[in-house]
Design brief:
The chain is of the alpha+beta class. The chain folds into two domains: 58 residues, no CATH class; 124 residues, Heat Shock Protein 90 (2-Layer Sandwich). Helices cover 34% and strands 22% of the residues. The strands form three sheets. It has a three-stranded antiparallel sheet with strand order 3-4-5, with helices on both faces. A three-stranded antiparallel sheet has the order 6-7-8, covered by helices on one side. Helix 4 runs antiparallel to helix 5 and helix 5 packs antiparallel against helix 7.
Length: 233
Amino acid sequence: MVKKKIILNYKCEFINGEVFALINSYINYLKSKNIEFEFENSMECEASDYLARINFFKNIGVDYDEKFTKTNTSNLIEITEFTSSNMYDVTTKVKQNLKLDNRILTCIDYCLGEILGNVDMHSNSKAGGVIFARTFKKKKYIKLIIIDNGDGFLKSFENDSRVKDLSKEEILERSLQEGFKSAKSEGRGYGLFHVKEFISKSDGIFYINTCGAVLFSKGVEVVVKQCNHYRSF
């Protein structure tokens, strides 16, 4: 049995919740592969309390003595695990907890529905996924991250003759074009295009990391580059 040891040794008082959503997802992936892991939290500070507040320790099955009282807040969606059976309940939770203008919530609802629908149809994930969100009301923006442990974007295009001469970066870039879809897809290819359009018209950033490639979209600018795959080990 392969065993991994994860050691958290942080000395700062500020923790990036998105990073720990990624770690949470990675640990779920290890478990789905029957890989055991040991966890060692080498620091006790306010940062650890924040990790407990966003459900990190609870999700990965690590006991933590919470010496604080959790209160509901309209600017945070804790790291929430989802599977195909509860992913739309998660969408409802996001809409109910984030106290935002109804027009904004309608756009968020559509974007979440499209992305989670893609996860459900194409990822074949045995470890589910996680979602995490924060609102920054003074700066007037929302940061929302969705991570799944599935096959990856390119799996949908295996044996698709239309893209056989394209690199993975080119396929990823085309995924945002109107009407582009895999031959296996039952949809019409408008989902990610509309998500990108909503985010662009809101002056936001759309970021996709999959299969060793990363896409960055802001306004009319779309950049795709190679990157390290976070699950490489």
